[in-house]
Amino acid sequence: MNRRRYPSNSLRRATVAVLLTGLLSGCDAYLPGPSYEDVTIPEEKLRHIETLELEEAEPNQVKTAGANETPPAELELSLEQCRALALSNNLELKAALIDPAIAAERLSEEEAKFESSFFANASATKWEQPSGRVVDIGDGTFISVVDASQTEQTNADLGVRVPLRTGGNVTFDLADSRRNDLNGDPNYNPSFENRFSVSISQPLLRNAGKWANMHSIRVAGYNRQAADARAKLEVITVLAAVDRVYWRLYAARRELDVRKQQYDLAQAQLQQARRFVELGERSQVEVIRAEAGVAQQLEAIIVAENNLRDRERELKRVINRAALDLQTLTVLVPLTEPDPVFYAMRRSELVRMAMDSRTELLELQLQLLNDASTVDYMRNLALPLATLEYSYNINGTGFARDDSFDLLYDSDFTGHRLNAQMVVPIGNKAAKSRIRQAVYQRRQRMATRNDRERMIELEVLNAIDQVEANWQRILAARQNSILNGRLYEAERRQFELGARTSTDVLDAQTKFADAQSSEIAALAEYQIALVDLAYATGTVLGAARIQWEPIVPDSDTPLPAQRRPKTC
Question: At 173, phi and psi to the nearest 5?
Fold first, then answer.
């Protein structure tokens, strides 16, 4: 028995492709991506705690700058300048203002799901189909013979798919096919076939209608507006932080001025006590008392200077001005003076303004709209899947491609196809569970909104009380400062007459300084209380309105590519 064998070229090609794939995947290659495989944290860095080693210096030596460093320069800043610098340079604000641009691109991405798409396919096929038969060669002898039919075929297909906002799709498709049967009739080989079809598919229940198919776009739109609300809140937060830091810096500088003034008064008291001792009118203990008072005032100056440096660094961090980092020795001098004015506090109007202006409530409102749309969308997904499809075909064939297209153009051979399909889930527990989750989340959000409204009302009322209390503090501190100033002058005159000691004068001087410090603190706290009231109502202080714009980074500049090695 004879058997005809045909070599399998397809098998050999497939084997070579598998070997090449294995070799390429096993060898070293560099693929773009995060270089997390290259990063190894040493164990010592995780478990070993370093010791802080400081250089020993002279006890009385205070070194604030290096030998080659220039003396610190002063920089005068008004409150408006600090606000402008913070809005332009604050790093937290810059990061927050990029979020609206990201949310806008996500919305654009969702809106693009209804864009039409062009598709094209091409394929070439050659195959051999074996067929067996029995042949009588005479004398009652039969042998089996294996023959093969060889066929070559090329297919090309191109078209346009148009998604509809109602959930369906419209497809325009033009197909071209060439077939050559090497064992067939040579008079009709090769042959050409062409087909043009228009089809439409439309869901009837689930995913049907504009409302259901626009859900993702609505959610992206709500998220974009929520990102705008968060960015607005960040702007208000940064401005409020600038105002608070500015007035604390003002109070710290004024406090240092008071302590220096008291130090000068203590020095004058010491000189006067020494003169009285030299004249024999006082005992030596008066000098010791005066020296103790000078030392006490010197300590207060050191504490005030350290507090002032802390406030300066805090303001430098917030405004983030170029060439004014935290390590610079530049002295910041606030120019804006507090303007204590008593305002009428209409509590109900301020609470209503807070309910209208607070971005947290606006963001919660957007999330509630998002939840409402999600509930309706989940209810739509719980419906049965019913689809209606219709297609219209025009077919053509011929010895040559031109003949086939001519027949296709004549539209003599057409076809219609109508198809209806329905899938009804039994039980549908998953869809019902998703509906309940969406409803529960909406109710949870509504409870959160009600609680947030009560918290905002509480914040506004507390801020109003704080403003009024700080105004009363200003009046009381100013009266206290005036009286303690008079008391100090009286004690000093009594000391000159010999009726009081240096201790009495220094005590009166200390009370006078404390009264001045309380007045300064009350002024600064009153300005900060106004800032807190504006923040509680979702507004900012000042006459100028603020209009912010999202930061759109340059997407054309390529980022530095990170590559990770792929090893065998």
Answer: -135, 130
The residue extents of the domains of the chain are 74-109+216-370+435-540, 168-206+387-423
Output the CA torsion sign for 210, 216, 219, 221: negative
Cβ–Cβ under 8 Å, residues 366 and 172:
no
Q: How far is the C-alpha of 172 from the C-alpha of 391, rounded, in Å? A: 10
Closest CA to 259 of 226, 293, 231: 293
- Report the candidate in 312, 320, 244, 224 with the shortest Cα–Cα distance to residue 535: 244
- Collapsing DSSP to helix, strand or coil, 82 comes out as helix
Among residues 376, 358, 351, the alpha carbon closest in space to that of 458 is found at 351
Secondary structure letter of residue 312 according to DSSP: H
Say if residue 157 is exposed, middle or buried (CB neighbours under 10 Å; 0-12, 13-18, 19+): middle
pLDDT band at 378 (very low <50, low <70, confident <90, very high): very high
Select the CATH number that applies to the domain covering 168-206+387-423 from these four: 3.90.1690, 2.20.200, 2.60.40, 3.30.70.
2.20.200
Helix, strand, coil: what percent of the chain each, to 5?
Answer: 55, 20, 25
3-class DSSP assignment, residue 28 = coil
pLDDT tens digit sequence for 498-524: 777 878 888 888 888 889 999 999 999
With contact defined as beta carbons under 8 Å apart, do 407 and 396 qualify?
A: yes
Which region among 166-175, 409-418, 501-510 has the lowest average model confidence (pLDDT)?
A: 501-510
Cβ 424 vs Cβ 375: under 8 Å: no
CB atoms within 10 A of CB 260: 15
Query: 463-477 pLDDT, tens per residue?
Result: 999 999 999 999 999
Above pLDDT 70, what percent of the chain?
Answer: 79
Mean pLDDT value across the chain: 81
Strands (E), 67-190: 74-77, 117-138, 141-163, 169-181
Q: Stretch 53-70: mean pLDDT, rounded?
A: 51
CA dihedral over 36, 39, 42, 48, signed as positive or negative: negative
Radius of gyration of the chain, Cα coordinates, nearest whole angstrom = 43
Q: How far is CA 313 from the centre of its chain?
A: 26
Q: Into which CATH architecture does domain 74-109+216-370+435-540 fall?
A: Up-down Bundle (1.20)
What is the pTM (predicted TM-score) of this model? 0.72
**Mind giving me the DSSP string for 176-211?**
EEEEEETTS-GGG-SEEEEEEEEEEEEESSTT-SHH
The separation between the first and the last C-alpha atoms of the chain, rounded to the nearest angstrom, is 51
Three-state DSSP class for residue 162: strand
Whether 27 contacts 565, CB under 8 Å: no
CA-CA distance, 562 to 30, in Å (whole number)?
10
Task: Give me the phi and psi of 192, to 5 degrees please.
Answer: -125, 140
